Amino acid sequence: MSKTELREIIGARVVRAHSSLSKFAIELEDDRGVVLTASEGSKIAAEIVEASAVPSLSEAVCSVDWSWINGSVFEDVQLSATAVRFKLNPAGPLTISSGAWQGSPFLSFMPYKPAPKQA
Asked: For position 41, what pLDDT does the model report?
């Protein structure tokens, strides 16, 4: 997917997100979804799909609670060969990167939980 195509989600609202070791799936309010997949060579593939095609993902070893991005709106999207950076309002920036460990591709997330509230 090109940067231009992924930018089609700007303005869309997150309903919920799920992740596993090698995939990140976001369901959007407009009956679409985004699926990011880690692949060989530390590459990351991005795909916009119909909501019915969004996989329900979970990982017993590294489960992440993504509820903190629910309701956020995509304000910007940046895509490179190895990472995707979302600017979400009000959740803030979220960077998903692809890497490899012992020959297997995986995704990493920064942040993986909401930032502490400022006093």
From this structure: 85
